[in-house]
Amino acid sequence: MNYFLLLLLLFLGTGVSAAEEPFHEAQLIFPLEHWHNHSSSIVEMSNGGFFVTWFHGSGERREDDVRILGARLGPGKKSWIKPFGLADNPNFPDTNCTLFIDDRERLWLFWPTILANEWHTALLNYKISSDYQRDGPPVWEKSGNILFKHDLERFEEKVRGYVEPDLETEPEGRRREQMNALIEHAGDKFFSRLGWMTRTHPIQLPSGRIVVPLYSDGYSFSLMGISDDGGETWSPSEPIVGYGSIQPSVVRKKDGTLAAFMRDAGPAPKRIATSTSRDDGMTWSRVVDTEFPNPGSSCEVIVLQDGTWLLVYNDTEKGRHSLAISLSDDEGKSWKWTRHIERDGRGERATTFHYPSVIQARDKSIHLTYSYFLNHLPRDAARKSIKYARFNAAWVKQGD
Predict the structure, then answer these.
(1) The whole model's pTM is what?
(2) Residues 6+ positions from 350 with CB-CB distance below 8 Å
């Protein structure tokens, strides 16, 4: 058989195009530290460089020194510049930040400030910059808070309609306790207006609508922040009610349907949850489990330029020591290819690789950042950073 024909057949057999050479490279954005560095978000700038943010400090919601940092990778550069500050409300923890570049090429930074050291007291903030591609921090032109005033009667109706039919047959246990808490807080103005936090990338729809995925640990479910005027005003979607369905990541199907993939912070079985919207994010279907295991950790899904869906997630029911990437060429009906970006057989006590943020660049390469913890080292040792990986779909299709 002709050598080149044989080579082509070998590539086709693994789902890899002969014209696309698999590649993967990775590095730490900054050296390991004893500080807690977590929950990153990455975007590509129009100059071909990359911008990333994460939160940094002594811990999370209970530590008042936590602030938002950033770093950039210049066009064609191999190393990230030294981190710099992006946001800090002094004496309050600033946490789960996310980045977004809108259709006007403005950079948005969203993040919650934790007012009383509990997640349900989060206040959602934003900053906007049109001048962010030079060295150092962006020049912020606007900043503020995003507050939601729900139709509380409709909000409560939605929550009760989801929970009460299940409550009748639910035995005593954690799940029943969670269901009762949902009903208790369903009509509470405080819980409905505060506590909403970001985690994954916002998306912008063809209509111009900006959809910001949000969740509440007070309710332990999700909703979307929606703006139809470029971020001048915001309104909440109806809640995506589930028993621990939080930190949604949203993709848009070819027919316009939105699909949200969510972390499982509820009881077993531990699975990535999903819900869909047919009205650009305003209302959502009943939450159901996917086949993907989830240990109570964030995941993210994006649509690649060729229509393939990419999902990055911890593929375990317990522990964040295994981080996988799966690809679907039929909009999530099946996932034909999976490869691990990180995996440690020693378990979570040794390492954790979690809270991924993923994008595809204009050149079709895929860029991923995630929290990288060496848990087996002493707590005061240099053991935490944000890791960056660059690869392509062909590398994923090769498998482990």
Answers:
(1) 0.94
(2) 321, 344, 374, 375, 376
